[in-house]
Specification:
Keywords: Cell membrane, Electron transport, Heme, Iron, Membrane, Metal-binding, Respiratory chain, Translocase, Transmembrane, Transmembrane helix, Transport. Its EC number is 7.1.1.8. By secondary structure, the chain is mostly helical. The protein has 18 helices and 9 strands. It has helices at residues 3-28, 30-38, 49-69, 97-108, 112-139, 148-170, 175-190, 195-203, 212-242, 262-287, 315-323, 339-367, 383-402, 405-412, 416-455, 479-486, 510-524, 533-550; strands at 41-42, 78-80, 94-96, 260-261, 329-332, 335-338, 457-464, 470-475, 555-558. The strands form 4 sheets. It has a 3-stranded antiparallel sheet, with no helix packed on it. Strands 1-4 form a two-stranded antiparallel ribbon. Helix 6 (148-170) runs antiparallel to helix 9 (212-242) and helix 13 (383-402) packs antiparallel against helix 15 (416-455).
Length: 562
Protein backbone atom coordinates (compact mmCIF):
# COMPACT_ATOMS: atom_id res chain seq x y z
CA UNK A 1 0.00 0.00 0.00
CA UNK A 2 1.38 3.43 -0.96
CA UNK A 3 1.87 6.29 1.44
CA UNK A 4 -0.71 8.33 -0.45
CA UNK A 5 -3.34 5.61 0.03
CA UNK A 6 -2.65 5.44 3.78
CA UNK A 7 -3.02 9.20 4.13
CA UNK A 8 -6.28 9.06 2.20
CA UNK A 9 -7.65 6.36 4.53
CA UNK A 10 -6.63 8.34 7.61
CA UNK A 11 -8.42 11.39 6.26
CA UNK A 12 -11.44 9.28 5.49
CA UNK A 13 -11.72 7.82 9.03
CA UNK A 14 -10.73 10.90 11.00
CA UNK A 15 -14.16 12.60 10.79
CA UNK A 16 -15.77 9.51 12.40
CA UNK A 17 -13.23 9.49 15.23
CA UNK A 18 -13.66 13.21 15.71
CA UNK A 19 -17.43 12.83 15.82
CA UNK A 20 -17.14 10.06 18.41
CA UNK A 21 -14.79 12.13 20.54
CA UNK A 22 -17.09 15.13 20.27
CA UNK A 23 -20.07 12.98 21.25
CA UNK A 24 -18.35 11.78 24.42
CA UNK A 25 -17.05 15.24 25.23
CA UNK A 26 -20.44 16.94 24.95
CA UNK A 27 -22.24 14.21 26.92
CA UNK A 28 -19.87 13.28 29.72
CA UNK A 29 -17.06 15.83 29.49
CA UNK A 30 -14.52 13.26 28.29
CA UNK A 31 -11.87 15.85 27.42
CA UNK A 32 -11.87 17.26 30.95
CA UNK A 33 -11.60 13.79 32.49
CA UNK A 34 -8.79 12.76 30.14
CA UNK A 35 -6.96 16.03 30.82
CA UNK A 36 -7.37 15.64 34.58
CA UNK A 37 -6.25 12.01 34.71
CA UNK A 38 -3.47 12.41 32.16
CA UNK A 39 -1.89 15.15 34.29
CA UNK A 40 -2.35 13.29 37.58
CA UNK A 41 1.02 12.72 39.22
CA UNK A 42 1.81 9.63 41.28
CA UNK A 43 4.97 9.14 43.35
CA UNK A 44 7.19 6.16 42.69
CA UNK A 45 7.93 3.69 45.49
CA UNK A 46 7.89 -0.11 45.61
CA UNK A 47 5.55 -0.23 48.62
CA UNK A 48 2.76 1.37 46.57
CA UNK A 49 2.61 -1.87 44.55
CA UNK A 50 1.08 -3.67 47.53
CA UNK A 51 -2.31 -2.10 46.87
CA UNK A 52 -2.01 -2.98 43.18
CA UNK A 53 -1.30 -6.62 44.05
CA UNK A 54 -4.54 -6.68 46.06
CA UNK A 55 -6.48 -5.05 43.21
CA UNK A 56 -5.09 -7.36 40.53
CA UNK A 57 -5.64 -10.43 42.71
CA UNK A 58 -9.28 -9.41 43.01
CA UNK A 59 -9.51 -9.12 39.22
CA UNK A 60 -8.11 -12.66 38.92
CA UNK A 61 -10.67 -13.76 41.53
CA UNK A 62 -13.50 -12.32 39.45
CA UNK A 63 -12.29 -13.90 36.20
CA UNK A 64 -11.64 -17.35 37.68
CA UNK A 65 -14.83 -17.15 39.73
CA UNK A 66 -16.92 -16.61 36.58
CA UNK A 67 -15.45 -19.81 35.16
CA UNK A 68 -16.15 -21.81 38.34
CA UNK A 69 -19.72 -20.53 38.59
CA UNK A 70 -20.56 -22.22 35.28
CA UNK A 71 -19.89 -25.69 36.72
CA UNK A 72 -20.56 -25.43 40.45
CA UNK A 73 -23.99 -26.55 41.71
CA UNK A 74 -24.90 -24.70 44.95
CA UNK A 75 -27.26 -27.33 46.31
CA UNK A 76 -27.28 -29.55 49.41
CA UNK A 77 -29.48 -32.17 47.77
CA UNK A 78 -28.10 -35.63 48.47
CA UNK A 79 -26.79 -37.51 45.41
CA UNK A 80 -24.45 -40.43 44.73
CA UNK A 81 -21.21 -39.77 42.93
CA UNK A 82 -21.12 -41.51 39.50
CA UNK A 83 -19.66 -45.01 39.52
CA UNK A 84 -17.63 -44.33 36.38
CA UNK A 85 -16.16 -40.96 37.37
CA UNK A 86 -12.82 -40.15 38.93
CA UNK A 87 -11.54 -40.25 41.62
CA UNK A 88 -12.06 -43.90 42.42
CA UNK A 89 -12.32 -43.21 46.18
CA UNK A 90 -15.46 -41.12 45.63
CA UNK A 91 -17.36 -43.53 43.36
CA UNK A 92 -20.82 -44.34 44.68
CA UNK A 93 -20.49 -42.26 47.85
CA UNK A 94 -23.46 -40.24 49.09
CA UNK A 95 -22.75 -36.52 49.08
CA UNK A 96 -24.30 -33.15 48.38
CA UNK A 97 -24.53 -31.80 44.85
CA UNK A 98 -22.16 -29.00 45.88
CA UNK A 99 -19.42 -31.47 46.83
CA UNK A 100 -20.08 -33.70 43.82
CA UNK A 101 -19.87 -30.79 41.38
CA UNK A 102 -16.63 -29.59 43.00
CA UNK A 103 -14.97 -33.00 42.65
CA UNK A 104 -16.35 -33.56 39.14
CA UNK A 105 -15.15 -30.11 38.08
CA UNK A 106 -11.67 -30.85 39.39
CA UNK A 107 -11.32 -34.14 37.48
CA UNK A 108 -13.46 -33.89 34.36
CA UNK A 109 -13.81 -30.22 33.36
CA UNK A 110 -10.81 -29.11 31.24
CA UNK A 111 -8.91 -26.58 33.30
CA UNK A 112 -11.30 -27.00 36.23
CA UNK A 113 -8.72 -27.94 38.83
CA UNK A 114 -6.32 -25.25 37.59
CA UNK A 115 -9.03 -22.61 37.87
CA UNK A 116 -10.04 -23.81 41.34
CA UNK A 117 -6.48 -23.56 42.58
CA UNK A 118 -5.83 -20.19 40.90
CA UNK A 119 -9.02 -18.92 42.52
CA UNK A 120 -7.99 -20.17 45.95
CA UNK A 121 -4.44 -18.82 45.73
CA UNK A 122 -5.76 -15.49 44.45
CA UNK A 123 -8.05 -15.29 47.50
CA UNK A 124 -5.12 -15.87 49.84
CA UNK A 125 -3.04 -13.33 47.93
CA UNK A 126 -5.88 -10.80 47.96
CA UNK A 127 -6.28 -10.85 51.74
CA UNK A 128 -2.52 -11.01 52.29
CA UNK A 129 -1.80 -8.04 50.02
CA UNK A 130 -4.57 -6.00 51.68
CA UNK A 131 -3.16 -6.80 55.11
CA UNK A 132 0.41 -5.79 54.21
CA UNK A 133 -0.89 -2.71 52.36
CA UNK A 134 -2.80 -1.60 55.46
CA UNK A 135 0.31 -2.21 57.56
CA UNK A 136 2.24 0.14 55.26
CA UNK A 137 -0.50 2.75 55.55
CA UNK A 138 -0.59 2.36 59.34
CA UNK A 139 3.14 2.52 60.06
CA UNK A 140 3.74 5.49 57.74
CA UNK A 141 0.77 7.50 59.05
CA UNK A 142 -0.97 7.61 55.67
CA UNK A 143 -4.32 7.48 57.50
CA UNK A 144 -3.97 11.00 58.90
CA UNK A 145 -6.17 13.87 57.82
CA UNK A 146 -7.69 14.03 55.23
CA UNK A 147 -7.58 10.22 54.72
CA UNK A 148 -9.41 8.94 57.80
CA UNK A 149 -12.45 8.03 55.68
CA UNK A 150 -10.29 6.17 53.18
CA UNK A 151 -8.75 4.22 56.07
CA UNK A 152 -12.24 3.10 57.11
CA UNK A 153 -12.99 2.16 53.49
CA UNK A 154 -9.82 0.06 53.36
CA UNK A 155 -10.61 -1.51 56.73
CA UNK A 156 -14.10 -2.44 55.50
CA UNK A 157 -12.54 -3.95 52.38
CA UNK A 158 -10.37 -6.12 54.60
CA UNK A 159 -13.41 -7.35 56.56
CA UNK A 160 -15.28 -8.03 53.32
CA UNK A 161 -12.24 -9.92 52.05
CA UNK A 162 -12.41 -12.15 55.13
CA UNK A 163 -16.15 -12.66 54.54
CA UNK A 164 -15.57 -13.51 50.88
CA UNK A 165 -12.84 -15.98 51.78
CA UNK A 166 -14.87 -17.70 54.48
CA UNK A 167 -18.02 -17.96 52.37
CA UNK A 168 -16.08 -19.33 49.39
CA UNK A 169 -14.09 -21.76 51.54
CA UNK A 170 -17.37 -23.20 52.85
CA UNK A 171 -19.02 -23.81 49.47
CA UNK A 172 -17.53 -27.26 48.57
CA UNK A 173 -19.34 -28.81 51.59
CA UNK A 174 -16.41 -31.06 52.50
CA UNK A 175 -15.33 -32.12 55.99
CA UNK A 176 -13.04 -29.12 56.58
CA UNK A 177 -15.51 -26.48 55.41
CA UNK A 178 -18.34 -28.19 57.29
CA UNK A 179 -16.34 -28.09 60.53
CA UNK A 180 -15.61 -24.43 59.89
CA UNK A 181 -19.33 -23.75 59.53
CA UNK A 182 -19.95 -25.68 62.73
CA UNK A 183 -17.49 -23.42 64.57
CA UNK A 184 -19.17 -20.34 63.08
CA UNK A 185 -22.54 -21.66 64.23
CA UNK A 186 -21.18 -22.15 67.74
CA UNK A 187 -19.75 -18.62 67.86
CA UNK A 188 -23.06 -17.20 66.62
CA UNK A 189 -25.05 -19.16 69.19
CA UNK A 190 -22.78 -17.90 72.00
CA UNK A 191 -23.97 -14.32 71.48
CA UNK A 192 -26.46 -13.58 74.28
CA UNK A 193 -30.19 -13.21 73.47
CA UNK A 194 -29.89 -13.13 69.66
CA UNK A 195 -27.46 -16.00 69.05
CA UNK A 196 -29.92 -18.88 68.67
CA UNK A 197 -32.29 -16.79 66.54
CA UNK A 198 -29.42 -15.74 64.32
CA UNK A 199 -28.37 -19.37 63.85
CA UNK A 200 -31.90 -20.44 62.90
CA UNK A 201 -32.14 -17.55 60.44
CA UNK A 202 -28.73 -18.26 58.85
CA UNK A 203 -29.08 -22.03 58.50
CA UNK A 204 -32.84 -22.16 57.98
CA UNK A 205 -33.33 -24.36 61.04
CA UNK A 206 -31.07 -26.71 62.94
CA UNK A 207 -27.45 -26.98 61.77
CA UNK A 208 -26.57 -27.80 59.04
CA UNK A 209 -29.98 -27.62 57.37
CA UNK A 210 -30.41 -27.56 53.60
CA UNK A 211 -30.16 -23.83 52.85
CA UNK A 212 -26.71 -22.70 53.97
CA UNK A 213 -24.78 -23.56 50.76
CA UNK A 214 -27.21 -21.74 48.41
CA UNK A 215 -27.22 -18.74 50.76
CA UNK A 216 -23.42 -18.66 51.01
CA UNK A 217 -23.24 -18.96 47.23
CA UNK A 218 -25.39 -15.84 46.84
CA UNK A 219 -23.28 -14.00 49.41
CA UNK A 220 -20.03 -15.14 47.77
CA UNK A 221 -20.77 -14.35 44.13
CA UNK A 222 -23.20 -11.43 44.43
CA UNK A 223 -23.37 -9.54 47.73
CA UNK A 224 -19.73 -9.44 48.88
CA UNK A 225 -18.16 -8.89 45.42
CA UNK A 226 -20.64 -6.11 44.71
CA UNK A 227 -19.76 -4.35 47.95
CA UNK A 228 -16.03 -4.85 47.31
CA UNK A 229 -16.30 -3.39 43.81
CA UNK A 230 -18.23 -0.39 45.13
CA UNK A 231 -15.72 0.26 47.91
CA UNK A 232 -12.75 -0.17 45.54
CA UNK A 233 -14.29 2.55 43.36
CA UNK A 234 -14.69 4.79 46.43
CA UNK A 235 -11.15 3.97 47.57
CA UNK A 236 -9.59 4.86 44.20
CA UNK A 237 -11.71 8.01 43.91
CA UNK A 238 -10.53 9.22 47.31
CA UNK A 239 -6.91 8.49 46.36
CA UNK A 240 -7.27 10.67 43.27
CA UNK A 241 -9.24 13.33 45.12
CA UNK A 242 -6.82 13.66 48.04
CA UNK A 243 -3.73 13.09 45.83
CA UNK A 244 -1.30 10.32 46.62
CA UNK A 245 0.91 10.30 49.68
CA UNK A 246 4.68 10.33 49.21
CA UNK A 247 7.74 9.48 51.24
CA UNK A 248 9.91 12.35 52.50
CA UNK A 249 12.64 13.56 50.17
CA UNK A 250 14.07 16.70 48.55
CA UNK A 251 11.35 18.95 47.21
CA UNK A 252 8.49 16.84 48.61
CA UNK A 253 6.06 18.77 50.78
CA UNK A 254 2.41 18.62 51.80
CA UNK A 255 1.62 21.00 48.94
CA UNK A 256 2.99 19.05 45.99
CA UNK A 257 3.49 15.55 44.57
CA UNK A 258 6.80 14.50 43.04
CA UNK A 259 6.48 11.59 40.63
CA UNK A 260 5.35 10.55 37.17
CA UNK A 261 2.06 11.15 35.30
CA UNK A 262 -0.66 8.52 35.15
CA UNK A 263 -0.50 8.46 31.33
CA UNK A 264 1.52 6.88 29.86
CA UNK A 265 3.97 5.90 32.62
CA UNK A 266 1.76 4.34 35.27
CA UNK A 267 -0.78 2.86 32.87
CA UNK A 268 2.02 0.94 31.17
CA UNK A 269 3.57 -0.12 34.48
CA UNK A 270 0.21 -1.18 35.94
CA UNK A 271 -0.69 -3.14 32.82
CA UNK A 272 2.57 -5.03 32.89
CA UNK A 273 2.33 -5.60 36.63
CA UNK A 274 -1.14 -7.12 36.25
CA UNK A 275 0.21 -9.81 33.96
CA UNK A 276 3.06 -10.46 36.41
CA UNK A 277 0.57 -10.99 39.25
CA UNK A 278 -1.64 -13.14 37.05
CA UNK A 279 1.36 -15.17 35.90
CA UNK A 280 2.55 -15.79 39.46
CA UNK A 281 -0.93 -16.92 40.52
CA UNK A 282 -1.20 -19.17 37.46
CA UNK A 283 2.15 -20.80 38.27
CA UNK A 284 1.07 -21.28 41.88
CA UNK A 285 -2.24 -22.79 40.76
CA UNK A 286 -0.48 -25.15 38.36
CA UNK A 287 2.28 -26.34 40.68
CA UNK A 288 1.05 -25.93 44.28
CA UNK A 289 -1.87 -28.12 45.29
CA UNK A 290 -4.43 -26.58 47.66
CA UNK A 291 -7.82 -27.56 49.08
CA UNK A 292 -8.03 -31.06 47.59
CA UNK A 293 -11.51 -31.74 48.95
CA UNK A 294 -11.62 -35.37 47.75
CA UNK A 295 -8.93 -36.18 50.32
CA UNK A 296 -11.30 -35.16 53.12
CA UNK A 297 -14.60 -36.44 51.77
CA UNK A 298 -18.12 -34.98 51.97
CA UNK A 299 -19.21 -33.31 55.19
CA UNK A 300 -20.12 -35.64 58.02
CA UNK A 301 -20.79 -34.18 61.50
CA UNK A 302 -19.15 -37.20 63.14
CA UNK A 303 -15.77 -36.71 61.41
CA UNK A 304 -13.11 -34.19 62.39
CA UNK A 305 -9.81 -34.39 60.56
CA UNK A 306 -6.61 -34.37 62.65
CA UNK A 307 -4.39 -31.39 61.93
CA UNK A 308 -7.25 -29.52 60.23
CA UNK A 309 -6.43 -25.86 59.61
CA UNK A 310 -8.52 -23.05 58.09
CA UNK A 311 -7.01 -20.58 55.65
CA UNK A 312 -4.35 -18.40 57.27
CA UNK A 313 -6.54 -15.32 57.60
CA UNK A 314 -9.04 -17.21 59.81
CA UNK A 315 -6.38 -19.05 61.82
CA UNK A 316 -6.30 -16.33 64.52
CA UNK A 317 -9.93 -17.15 65.41
CA UNK A 318 -9.09 -20.84 65.63
CA UNK A 319 -6.16 -20.02 67.90
CA UNK A 320 -8.27 -17.86 70.20
CA UNK A 321 -10.81 -20.67 70.61
CA UNK A 322 -8.05 -23.17 71.39
CA UNK A 323 -6.46 -20.96 74.05
CA UNK A 324 -9.63 -20.19 75.97
CA UNK A 325 -10.28 -22.52 78.96
CA UNK A 326 -13.43 -24.58 78.56
CA UNK A 327 -14.89 -24.33 82.07
CA UNK A 328 -16.28 -20.80 81.71
CA UNK A 329 -20.04 -21.16 81.24
CA UNK A 330 -22.54 -19.34 83.46
CA UNK A 331 -26.34 -19.34 83.64
CA UNK A 332 -27.73 -15.85 84.22
CA UNK A 333 -31.51 -15.30 84.39
CA UNK A 334 -32.09 -18.52 82.53
CA UNK A 335 -29.62 -17.73 79.74
CA UNK A 336 -26.39 -19.66 79.31
CA UNK A 337 -23.42 -17.36 78.90
CA UNK A 338 -20.69 -19.34 77.12
CA UNK A 339 -17.62 -17.23 77.80
CA UNK A 340 -15.38 -20.01 76.50
CA UNK A 341 -16.74 -19.24 73.02
CA UNK A 342 -17.99 -15.67 73.35
CA UNK A 343 -14.69 -14.19 74.57
CA UNK A 344 -12.34 -15.72 71.95
CA UNK A 345 -14.86 -15.75 69.11
CA UNK A 346 -16.44 -12.31 69.53
CA UNK A 347 -14.83 -10.15 72.24
CA UNK A 348 -11.13 -10.53 71.37
CA UNK A 349 -11.53 -10.12 67.58
CA UNK A 350 -13.93 -7.25 68.23
CA UNK A 351 -11.42 -5.41 70.43
CA UNK A 352 -8.51 -5.94 68.02
CA UNK A 353 -10.40 -4.88 64.91
CA UNK A 354 -12.04 -1.93 66.68
CA UNK A 355 -8.64 -0.63 67.82
CA UNK A 356 -7.33 -0.98 64.29
CA UNK A 357 -10.31 0.84 62.77
CA UNK A 358 -10.39 3.70 65.29
CA UNK A 359 -6.64 4.28 65.68
CA UNK A 360 -6.54 7.28 63.27
CA UNK A 361 -9.21 8.99 65.33
CA UNK A 362 -7.50 8.10 68.62
CA UNK A 363 -4.22 9.57 67.40
CA UNK A 364 -5.98 12.62 65.98
CA UNK A 365 -7.72 13.18 69.32
CA UNK A 366 -4.36 12.95 71.12
CA UNK A 367 -2.58 15.38 68.80
CA UNK A 368 -5.44 17.81 68.16
CA UNK A 369 -3.95 18.10 64.68
CA UNK A 370 -6.19 19.81 62.11
CA UNK A 371 -3.68 20.14 59.26
CA UNK A 372 -3.45 18.02 56.13
CA UNK A 373 -0.64 15.49 55.79
CA UNK A 374 0.52 14.24 52.40
CA UNK A 375 4.14 13.39 53.27
CA UNK A 376 4.48 10.07 55.04
CA UNK A 377 6.13 9.50 58.39
CA UNK A 378 9.14 7.34 58.88
CA UNK A 379 7.95 4.71 61.41
CA UNK A 380 10.80 5.56 63.78
CA UNK A 381 9.53 9.15 64.06
CA UNK A 382 6.20 7.94 65.51
CA UNK A 383 7.42 5.48 68.16
CA UNK A 384 4.13 4.93 70.02
CA UNK A 385 2.18 4.39 66.81
CA UNK A 386 4.79 1.95 65.53
CA UNK A 387 4.96 0.15 68.86
CA UNK A 388 1.14 -0.06 69.03
CA UNK A 389 0.99 -1.56 65.55
CA UNK A 390 3.66 -4.11 66.41
CA UNK A 391 1.79 -5.01 69.62
CA UNK A 392 -1.48 -5.57 67.72
CA UNK A 393 0.32 -7.68 65.14
CA UNK A 394 1.96 -9.65 67.95
CA UNK A 395 -1.45 -10.61 69.32
CA UNK A 396 -2.51 -11.84 65.88
CA UNK A 397 0.74 -13.78 65.42
CA UNK A 398 0.36 -15.47 68.81
CA UNK A 399 -3.21 -16.47 67.98
CA UNK A 400 -2.18 -17.74 64.53
CA UNK A 401 0.57 -19.86 66.09
CA UNK A 402 -1.89 -21.12 68.73
CA UNK A 403 -4.21 -22.23 65.95
CA UNK A 404 -1.49 -24.71 64.97
CA UNK A 405 -0.65 -25.93 68.47
CA UNK A 406 -1.45 -29.53 67.59
CA UNK A 407 0.88 -29.49 64.59
CA UNK A 408 3.63 -27.85 66.65
CA UNK A 409 3.22 -30.58 69.27
CA UNK A 410 3.38 -33.45 66.79
CA UNK A 411 6.20 -32.06 64.63
CA UNK A 412 8.47 -31.05 67.52
CA UNK A 413 7.43 -33.84 69.95
CA UNK A 414 6.24 -31.42 72.62
CA UNK A 415 3.41 -31.48 75.12
CA UNK A 416 0.19 -30.03 73.72
CA UNK A 417 -0.85 -28.76 77.15
CA UNK A 418 2.53 -27.08 77.71
CA UNK A 419 2.32 -25.38 74.32
CA UNK A 420 -1.21 -24.16 75.05
CA UNK A 421 -0.18 -22.71 78.41
CA UNK A 422 2.88 -21.08 76.84
CA UNK A 423 0.68 -19.36 74.26
CA UNK A 424 -1.74 -18.23 76.98
CA UNK A 425 1.11 -16.52 78.79
CA UNK A 426 2.53 -15.07 75.57
CA UNK A 427 -0.89 -13.69 74.61
CA UNK A 428 -0.74 -11.28 77.56
CA UNK A 429 3.01 -10.83 77.97
CA UNK A 430 4.48 -10.68 74.46
CA UNK A 431 2.49 -7.63 73.19
CA UNK A 432 3.68 -5.60 76.19
CA UNK A 433 7.29 -6.66 75.64
CA UNK A 434 7.18 -5.93 71.89
CA UNK A 435 5.58 -2.53 72.54
CA UNK A 436 8.34 -1.49 74.94
CA UNK A 437 11.16 -2.88 72.81
CA UNK A 438 9.81 -1.36 69.58
CA UNK A 439 9.36 2.04 71.21
CA UNK A 440 12.92 2.02 72.57
CA UNK A 441 14.30 0.97 69.18
CA UNK A 442 12.45 3.83 67.46
CA UNK A 443 13.78 6.37 69.98
CA UNK A 444 17.31 5.00 69.57
CA UNK A 445 17.05 5.29 65.79
CA UNK A 446 15.88 8.89 66.20
CA UNK A 447 18.95 9.65 68.31
CA UNK A 448 21.12 8.05 65.65
CA UNK A 449 19.49 10.20 62.96
CA UNK A 450 20.08 13.30 65.08
CA UNK A 451 23.77 12.47 65.40
CA UNK A 452 24.04 11.84 61.67
CA UNK A 453 22.51 15.21 60.83
CA UNK A 454 24.78 17.10 63.23
CA UNK A 455 28.04 15.24 62.63
CA UNK A 456 27.71 13.16 59.44
CA UNK A 457 28.81 9.59 58.76
CA UNK A 458 31.73 8.08 60.61
CA UNK A 459 34.58 7.30 58.22
CA UNK A 460 36.95 5.46 60.54
CA UNK A 461 39.77 7.93 59.72
CA UNK A 462 41.50 9.57 62.69
CA UNK A 463 43.56 12.72 62.11
CA UNK A 464 45.78 14.85 64.34
CA UNK A 465 45.70 18.63 64.51
CA UNK A 466 48.82 20.73 64.59
CA UNK A 467 48.07 21.28 68.27
CA UNK A 468 48.24 17.53 68.87
CA UNK A 469 44.47 17.01 69.20
CA UNK A 470 42.99 13.87 67.61
CA UNK A 471 39.59 13.74 65.92
CA UNK A 472 37.70 11.29 63.71
CA UNK A 473 36.81 12.64 60.28
CA UNK A 474 33.11 12.55 59.47
CA UNK A 475 31.61 12.57 55.97
CA UNK A 476 28.81 15.15 55.64
CA UNK A 477 25.37 13.99 54.54
CA UNK A 478 24.23 14.76 51.02
CA UNK A 479 21.14 16.87 50.39
CA UNK A 480 18.79 13.91 50.00
CA UNK A 481 19.88 12.21 53.24
CA UNK A 482 19.68 15.43 55.23
CA UNK A 483 16.22 16.28 53.88
CA UNK A 484 14.82 12.88 54.88
CA UNK A 485 16.24 13.15 58.40
CA UNK A 486 15.12 16.72 59.17
CA UNK A 487 11.80 16.83 57.28
CA UNK A 488 9.64 15.96 60.33
CA UNK A 489 8.57 18.52 62.90
CA UNK A 490 8.55 18.34 66.70
CA UNK A 491 5.75 16.45 68.46
CA UNK A 492 5.13 17.39 72.05
CA UNK A 493 2.38 16.65 74.60
CA UNK A 494 -0.53 19.07 74.61
CA UNK A 495 -0.78 21.81 77.21
CA UNK A 496 -4.26 22.59 78.51
CA UNK A 497 -5.74 25.55 80.35
CA UNK A 498 -6.31 25.52 84.08
CA UNK A 499 -9.39 23.83 85.51
CA UNK A 500 -10.77 27.14 86.76
CA UNK A 501 -10.53 30.58 85.23
CA UNK A 502 -9.40 33.75 87.04
CA UNK A 503 -12.86 34.18 88.58
CA UNK A 504 -12.81 30.66 90.03
CA UNK A 505 -15.41 29.36 87.58
CA UNK A 506 -14.88 25.78 86.44
CA UNK A 507 -14.00 25.72 82.76
CA UNK A 508 -16.36 23.57 80.65
CA UNK A 509 -14.74 20.68 78.80
CA UNK A 510 -11.84 20.41 81.24
CA UNK A 511 -12.40 16.70 81.85
CA UNK A 512 -12.25 16.03 78.11
CA UNK A 513 -9.08 18.10 77.85
CA UNK A 514 -7.48 16.14 80.70
CA UNK A 515 -8.21 12.90 78.88
CA UNK A 516 -6.72 14.33 75.73
CA UNK A 517 -3.64 15.54 77.61
CA UNK A 518 -3.13 12.11 79.23
CA UNK A 519 -3.42 10.43 75.83
CA UNK A 520 -1.07 13.01 74.32
CA UNK A 521 1.51 12.32 77.02
CA UNK A 522 1.26 8.63 76.31
CA UNK A 523 2.04 9.33 72.65
CA UNK A 524 4.68 12.04 72.92
CA UNK A 525 6.12 12.34 76.43
CA UNK A 526 9.09 10.12 75.48
CA UNK A 527 10.55 11.79 72.44
CA UNK A 528 13.71 12.96 70.71
CA UNK A 529 13.58 16.55 69.51
CA UNK A 530 14.42 16.93 65.81
CA UNK A 531 17.40 19.00 64.76
CA UNK A 532 16.62 22.70 64.54
CA UNK A 533 18.04 24.95 61.79
CA UNK A 534 20.17 26.80 64.35
CA UNK A 535 21.68 23.54 65.64
CA UNK A 536 22.39 22.43 62.07
CA UNK A 537 24.06 25.73 61.22
CA UNK A 538 26.17 25.64 64.40
CA UNK A 539 27.28 22.07 63.65
CA UNK A 540 28.36 23.04 60.13
CA UNK A 541 30.35 26.00 61.41
CA UNK A 542 32.09 23.75 63.94
CA UNK A 543 32.91 21.15 61.26
CA UNK A 544 34.33 23.81 58.94
CA UNK A 545 36.47 25.17 61.79
CA UNK A 546 37.85 21.68 62.49
CA UNK A 547 38.65 21.18 58.83
CA UNK A 548 40.52 24.49 58.66
CA UNK A 549 42.56 23.68 61.78
CA UNK A 550 43.38 20.18 60.63
CA UNK A 551 44.39 21.11 57.07
CA UNK A 552 47.84 22.69 57.79
CA UNK A 553 49.29 19.64 59.49
CA UNK A 554 46.99 16.67 59.02
CA UNK A 555 48.33 13.20 59.66
CA UNK A 556 46.28 10.04 59.30
CA UNK A 557 46.79 7.97 62.41
CA UNK A 558 44.72 4.92 61.57
CA UNK A 559 41.61 3.48 59.99
CA UNK A 560 38.96 1.12 61.14
CA UNK A 561 36.41 -0.84 59.13
CA UNK A 562 32.67 -0.50 59.73
Amino acid sequence: MSARTEVAQQRKTSPTAAAGADFLDTRVGASKMVKEFARKIFPDHWSFLLGEIALFSFVVLILSGIFLTMFFVPSMTEVHYPEDALPVTMQGLEMSEAFASTVYMSYHVPGGLLMRQIHHWAALMFVGAMTVHMMRVFFTGAFRRPRELNWLVGFTLLILGLAAGFSGYSLPDDVLSGNGLRIADGVLRAIPLIGSYGSYMLFGGEFPGTDIIPRLFTVHILLVPGLILALIAVHLFLIVWHKHTQFPGPGRTDRNVVGYPLFPVYTAKAGGFFFIVFGVLAVMGATMSINNVWNYGPYDPSIVGAGAQPDWYMLFLEGALRLMPGQTEYVIAGYTLSLNILVPGVVIPGILFTLLALFPFIEGFATKDTGEHHVLDRPRNAPVRTASGVAILTVFFVLVAAGSNDLIATHFHLSLNAITWAFRVLFFLLPVVTFIVTKRICLSLQRKDRELVLHGHETGRVVRFASGEYIEVHRPLDEHERWVLVAHGPRRPLEIAAEEDAAGVRRPGHRRDRLRQALSRFFYEDRVEPVTPSELAAAHVHDEHDEVEASPARETIGTQSH
